[in-house]
Amino acid sequence: MNNKLILLFIFLLIGTTSISAQNDTNSSKEIKNLISKKRSFNKDFGFGYRVQIFYGSETKARKLQSKFKINFPGVYTKLLYIAPEWKVQVGNYKTKLEADKAIIAFSEKFEGVIAIPLGK
What we know:
There is one protein chain. By secondary structure, the protein is of the alpha+beta class. The chain folds into two domains: about 45 residues; about 70 residues, Alpha-Beta Plaits. The protein contains three helices and four strands, in the order αβαββαβ. The protein has a four-stranded antiparallel β-sheet, with helices on one face. The longest helix is centred in the N-terminal third of the chain and has 44 residues. The radius of gyration is 25 Å and the shape is elongated. It starts with a helix and ends with a strand.
């Protein structure tokens, strides 16, 4: 009885090891292929992201832009007017992940912070 249990355990161990090794190899190649395609796409078409910290009236937009410059010196800020509202956008980020990391830092001082993709 013990010999049968030992043999069964060995077969299960060998089976699961070979299956997981095959999955790691296949997914690794697929992941590398997807990453290279994404990098190629970003190089040709990637415009990046900005973080929008405000959307509304001109006076409040200018106040929040000044407050942002004090709290985060060295981060690029831009004031936009798209009728009838004003926007305060900050930073220049290559990827959404970078913009999302900045959102975490900015949301401590500002509410309603979102990532905005830059268009063509």
